[in-house]
Write a structure and sequence with these properties.
Length: 380
């Protein structure tokens, strides 16, 4: 067990280290599917701070195992290394009073730094958990990373994982304990095209694609109980010149739902729409870019007990428990497999997914306190 005195002193002595690790990570670009250099930093940092057995797996997850035997139960404490930004240089860092501005700082860089420094605290304490623990700096949470890192984690450790905690986002107030699934596609249309004057009357791929988008936007989203389902066209492209009938156009399209049945109904509606256009003689191609699963067949009592174990720490530290909601996070994978999981915030920030993203400096000590106390819950 980590005593109250140990936690208090460790936070006092290492809160500044969390900020230092955050700054170091922000200096290393980590676009989704380009996390290599940040993973190398995390590996080196773990090994320098007592985690000599840390390693990088085939999906660029950095894994620090603590008391992991051949067959004991495992609990995962994770935060993702990738960011939504495509930058290949250091992210700009700016401090104004208690706020620090930097792209990706609260999603998810500071959370990752808290998890890393908390893992170091467990190693320094000398406490041996009754279970195995995996501290993971995982890849592929953002965008088209398709949760590749956590998927690999479950391929490697499978049913040995009995609980999963992901640190993500800039708030202590909310906790994700339900998975919003999504399907993401690149849909293209090809027609004969031609010269805008000489071939006038030929079908224009941009016009056909526009019509298809209008059709998709007439869909009445399915509803089941208090479920929520959405859809979006996030990008369109096509054509060549102003005097050419476009022969090719494409779009990026996704739909999301926190209910599996509704998600599958959206899939059927998309397939029916595409088939209708193919029946008109239009060449339509559909490429699946991302597949994030909904919550699967999970024992409600087990998930409630796991959520409460984590939430009790927030109530102790913050004076009130977190509100609960569904979201699209790394926890989607365990929740889809029936493994209790939550996603929590270990810092306070805002402006997520924008160049103006910020972090409240003083929140890092609170986040470190929370993380150490959560780890302590699994030492009992």
């Amino acid at each position: 067990m980590l005593t109250e005195e140990f936690v208090k002193k460790y936070v006092e002595n290492h809160a500044e280290e969390v900020l230092e690790v955050t700054r170091a990570l922000c200096a290393i670009p980590a676009p989704c599917n380009g996390e290599t250099e940040r993973a190398k930093f995390c590996l080196e940092w773990f090994r320098k701070n007592g985690g000599e057995n840390a390693y990088i797996d085939g999906m660029e997850n950095v894994i620090l195992p603590v008391h992991v035997t051949e067959d004991n139960n495992l609990y995962v404490f994770a935060a993702h290394t990738d960011t939504v930004f495509p930058d290949t240089g250091a992210y700009p860092w700016r401090e104004e009073g208690e706020k620090i501005f930097c792209p990706s700082i609260s999603d998810d860089t500071a959370n990752l730094a808290v998890v890393m420094v908390a893992a170091k605290g467990l190693l320094e304490s000398g406490e041996v958990p009754p279970c195995g623990m995996l501290f993971v700096a995982n890849s592929g949470e953002e965008g088209l990373g398709n949760l590749k890192g956590v998927k690999q984690l479950f391929r490697d450790f499978g049913t040995r994982i009995k609980g999963f905690i992901s640190a993500d986002g800039g708030s202590f107030a909310g906790m994700t304990n339900g998975a919003v699934g999504s399907h993401r596609y690149r849909i293209s249309v090809d027609t004969e095209g031609g010269h805008s004057f000489g071939a006038f009357g030929n079908r224009n791929a941009i016009h056909v694609l526009s019509s298809m988008i209008c059709s998709l936007y007439t869909v009445k989203v399915p509803k089941k109980g208090d479920s929520r389902t959405t859809y979006n066209v996030g990008g369109i492209s096509g054509g060549t010149t102003i005097n050419t009938i476009a022969a090719h156009a494409e779009m990026l399209y996704e739909y999301r739902s926190d209910d599996l049945e509704c998600l599958n109904r959206m899939k059927k509606m998309l397939e029916a729409t595409l088939e209708a256009y193919r029946a008109m003689g239009v060449t339509v191609n559909c490429e699946l870019l991302g597949d994030r699963p909904c919550t699967g067949d999970i024992d409600a009592e087990d998930e409630a007990a796991f959520t409460e174990k984590v939430n009790s720490v927030y109530e102790e530290v913050m004076g009130e428990p977190c509100s609960l909601h569904s979201g699209s996070t790394d926890a989607n994978i365990p929740l889809s497999l029936g493994v209790p999981a939550v996603t929590i915030g270990l810092c306070v920030g805002g402006g997520g997914h924008t160049r103006g993203e910020w972090l409240e400096r003083t929140s890092l000590s609170t986040g470190l306190t929370i993380m150490l106390k959560i780890i302590n819950q699994f030492l009992k």
